[in-house]
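We emphasize that the prediction below concerns an isolated chain of 374 residues; any contacts that depend on oligomerization or on bound cofactors are therefore not represented. The input was used exactly as deposited, without trimming of termini.
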Amino acid sequence: MKTNKLLIRLSFIADGALFLVLLLGARWHWLPALLGAEVIMGLVRMSRLSPMMFRFVLRRLVHMIPIVLAVIALGFALMQLAPGDIFTQMILNPDISQADLDRYREAFRLDKPWYVQFFYYVWNVLHGDFGYSIVYKIPAFSLISQRAMNTLILSLASILCAWGFSIPAGIYAATRQYRAGDQVISVFAFFGLAIPNYFLAFLLVFVVSKTGNWLPIGSMYSVNVNDLNVIRRFFDLLLHMIIPVFVIATSATASLTRIMRANMLEILGQQYITTARAKGLAERTVVYKHALRNAINPMISIFGYQFGAILGGSALVERVMAWPGLGSLMLEALLSQDTYLITGSFFYGTILLVVGNLMADILLALVDPRIRIS
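Result of the prediction step, given as a token string:
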């Protein structure tokens, strides 16, 4: 036992060392270097603390490999269906000859079939090269990592708001079925499901702009952000997040509230809940100790898919709010046909979605003892 504790403590020191190796030795960007170091050392610690969970997580990580490869291949195949490429629009430039365009296409291997481009891309990825953005003139993964961090900030804030409201709202609606509170929550849920995110974003921008601009209606920071200290910069970010987080969280909250309400109603009708009430337990104990623990399991199982849905649904909101995130970057890359930027965005989004599902499975195993036994 003491040996395990000592190894766990040493592994936290190894976190920093591995991060520096990936950052300086392998020349990764700081974000994938940090995530890679935490994943590797997390698996090392898990192998000592819970070998069964370690084998489960390792199997899931191995299963990620064909999924990511399939997404990259699909991205290359879909890009071939679009007419032309990123250099096609340069034909209108009289200073660029056809020979120059052919040389550019050869340099980026755009003159080869999509499956050849795919294998070249995978080979380069294994060596830490995720391609070069022709539009932005920088390595694609550096730009994607920067934008992905902005999207993660927005998505995590939206998830916290959505889950923080939907779980108590679903419990409240289920315990007061068909009463006034339940009806109000149902109206809000149907409103959130019916209105598109981008339209709600336009509506809020219009309302705020017509009532005195009391909230920022665009970008991630103010123009004078470089003149602010750390604390004021943090609060400036929070102000800019209010509208996009509210818009993205509205649809997620609506669906999660309906699911939580339905789960609670089903659980509250079970025989063991009737038995608990017959024993004289307080209603609060019956709801929050016996019913909630079983009703929360289906919510956790959809956490990964909800995470992916929020990432995908934030694209248009980022575009409307001028938020420099991954979604707006993907739209710009698609319009300009920047192949490596599109493929890198697909790669990053797929990793986040699969990791989100893996986190949901781990949380479900921690909450539900039946899964650990099986």
